[in-house]
Amino acid sequence: MIEGTPGSSDGEETAGHGRPVGPGVPEQAPGSPSRLRLVAESSAAQREPLEDAAERVRGIDTTHWSSAARDGYLRRRDELAGQWRAALDVHRAVSERIGEHSTFVHELRHLWAAYDKDEDQQRHLQALHDTKAAELKQFLVEQAEKLDRLALAPDPVGVPDEADHPAQPPEAPPSAEHEEPGSEEQEEPAEPDEAPDDAAQDDPAADDGPVATFGQQLRERELLTRQLHDGNRVERIPYDGLVT
Amino acid sequence: MNGFSVDLGELDAAGRQFRGLADDVRGHVAWKFGVDTERWPDDDPLRAAVDVYQRSLIAARDRLCARTDRVAALLQETADNYRRLDDVVAQRLSSVRAGDALDRGNSGLV
Predict the structure, then answer these.
(1) H-helix or E-strand containing A201?
(2) What digits encode the pLDDT tens for the residues A183-233?
(3) Given pLDDT bands bounded at 50, 70 and 90, which one contains residue A128?
(4) How far is CA A115 from CA A5, A13, A118, A122, in A?
(5) CA A66 to CA A81: how far, in whole Å?
């Protein structure tokens, strides 16, 4: 062990693994406390604007507006707030995980020094670090994929949704509710109670195309079957023979 | 729903709130320096994953900001449409005589 290394968590410029000095035992503890601390601090700072957005979007209300268009606005606002919240939840989890790993790597320096004469223990610590680093790496990639799926669908304004509007509206009069864009937002699939973990699902489900249409039909059929089975829904089939 | 009521000033204000929010997020100091891995050694086990995650985070932020801007624009358009409609109705009612209004009551406003 190099003199002074255990305490020098700042300024060290080693790679993830130190140079082996013996059979499989690195010269110094693996990991970089200074680099990880920077990432942890940056990630923690990045939470702030996301928290701010998630909080503020949900609070933007229009209490003096009363119309069908306003209902559409509220759905759109809640969906947007849910997406901000989903991004925040992903990043909060990442930030905490990086912070934990940073603490672990920092502590590892001290443990490494404590086991200066014990190569078996150092090998164990090395393996522990490698496992934790691999897990964090995997976690980061998975969370990145979650973010990649968030808010991906094109802005659906103007795109008709057959689930909400199965038939053409009858001769829509030129009223404000029908002309202003807020009403178009009702055509967007509404998921007001979107859970944070739905980030990976919310937008792909809103994609257009035959696959999405088929998926929607499938979900509706499953829902109908479930309701019929549970007795929540009764299909009334007209039968002329019973009518006299 | 029968009829509607709206405070156009409130709609304008809500639109400004959305726009300001998107601007605040984009301009937040937390993004200014980001996570710089340029000088990290190539064999750092986390370098690539940190880069991937940060790229995804920034891209998601930008998409959400764009959506927030879009809601702001929609609210502004909504307020403009309400104003336009009110102008159309007002012009219509002031340009026709009472008899015309009765005769053409079903002809639509626009």
Answers:
(1) none
(2) 444 444 434 344 444 444 444 444 455 556 555 655 665 555 455 455 454
(3) very high
(4) 13, 22, 5, 6
(5) 21
Determine the Cα–Cα distance for residues A5 and A22; give it in Å rounded to an integer.
17
3-state secondary structure of A26: strand
- Our CA angle for A91, A206, B4, nearest 5°, is 100
**Strand runs (DSSP E) across chain A, as ranges?**
none
Min Cα–Cα distance to chain A from B105, Å: 13
Nearest Cα to Cα of residue A99 among A30, A47, A26, A29:
A47
- Whether the full predicted model's pTM is greater than 0.80, yes or no, is no
> Do residues A12 and A112 touch, judged by C-beta distance below 8 A?
no
A14 touches chain B (CB under 8 A): yes
pLDDT at A173 over 60: no
What is the number of other CB atoms lying within 10 angstroms of the CB of residue A18? 19
Mutate to test the interface with A, among B58, B78, B87, B91 (most CBs of A within 10 A): B78
The owner of tokens 């358009």 is B77
For A60-94, the pLDDT digits (tens) are: 999 999 999 999 999 999 999 999 999 999 999 99
SS3 B55: helix
CA distance, residue A242 to nearest chain B CA (Å)? 37
Instruction: Please name every residue paired with A66 in a beta bridge, in sequence order, or none if there are none.
Output: B5
Burial class (CB in 10 A: 0-12, 13-18, 19+), A141: middle
Nearest CB partner across the interface for A137, out of B3, B7, B46:
B46
Contact between residue A179 and residue B85 where contact means Cβ atoms under 8 Å apart: yes
Burial of A169: CB neighbours in 10 Å, binned 0-12, 13-18, 19+:
exposed
Residue in chain A nearest B54 by alpha carbon: A144
Q: Quote the tokens at residue A76.
A: 């759109």
Q: What number of other Cβ atoms are within 10 A of residue A233's Cβ?
A: 12
**Residue whose C-alpha is closest to residue B46's, from A107, A27, A14, A136:** A136
Contact B47, B37 (CB under 8 A): yes
Location of structure tokens 């089939």: A237
